[in-house]
Amino acid sequence: MKYALTIVFFLIIPVAVSANNLLDSDLDGVPDQDEMNIYHTDWSKPDTDGDGYSDWLELNTGFSPLNPKPARLEDNDFDSDGLSDRMELNFHTDISNPDTDGDGFKDGDEITAGYDPLNPAKVLLDKRIEINTGPKQELSYFLGGVRMGTFRVSSGKPGMHTPKGHYQVDNKASRAWSNRWGLWMPYWMALDGGYFGIHELPEWPNGAKEGEDHLGTPVSHGCVRLGVGSAKFLYDWTPVGTPVFIY
């Protein structure tokens, strides 16, 4: 009888493990090792910020488990390094340390300059651009494999489709002139030797913008058009030689 009671006693004790059999001391669904090493939440409290929602629920719905206010991960910067918590998780940097690699530069500054925030040496991360010419009509730009942002575009209209394939930025000009169409192409980035390219909405000699109301619709003569502001940003961000994938 003594042994039977002992067996029953052990069977009814809650086991602090997560669904993947990793230790989860506070039973919030987030393994202790992830709370300590990735999210920097309290492994002994299921609700680190005390807002009434478990750490697991906040993380899985895109909210910060470190902020009692309803702040989304992309809007929260726990260590004030200029890099959102969402991007910290994407780049595997320390969400609680503004300078993960200890090189004297904040993680956010390194990402802005294109450097690896996990390497104290000055190592540039690879950049690439992807353009969806389908119904989405969008351009995404990536740093070190991480999608940094997305812009609406206008690709080629029917009969003048934007060529699909793998290209690279061959050259750049802040203000290129199209002899064929008689208009300016601000923030021009040439693809396929200049056969077509990425640029801001075309501009007529009188200063009027072409296709300003048609972003998101394929209306160009084959180039990829970006809106005012986003074109300059991408032009400044993109070095010559950057790979461009169009599909």
Automatic annotation (TrEMBL):
Residues 1-19 form the signal peptide. One of its GO terms (biological process) is peptidoglycan-protein cross-linking. Transmembrane segments: none annotated. One of its GO terms (cellular component) is extracellular region. The active site is at H199 (proton donor/acceptor), C223 (nucleophile). Its main location: secreted. It is found in: Secreted. The keyword Signal applies. Pathway: Cell wall biogenesis; peptidoglycan biosynthesis. One of its GO terms (molecular function) is calcium ion binding. Pfam families: TSP3_bac (PF18884), YkuD (PF03734). Residues 128-247 form the L,D-TPase catalytic domain. SUPFAM superfamilies: L,D-transpeptidase catalytic domain-like, TSP type-3 repeat. Keywords: Calcium, Cell shape, Cell wall biogenesis/degradation, Peptidoglycan synthesis, Secreted, Signal, Transferase. The keyword Ribosomal protein does not apply. InterPro entries: LD-transpeptidase, LD_TPept_cat_dom, Transpep_catalytic_dom, TSP3_bac, TSP_type-3_rpt. Coiled coil: none annotated. It comes from the Bacteria. This is L,D-TPase catalytic domain-containing protein. It comes from Candidatus Falkowbacteria bacterium RIFOXYA2_FULL_47_19.
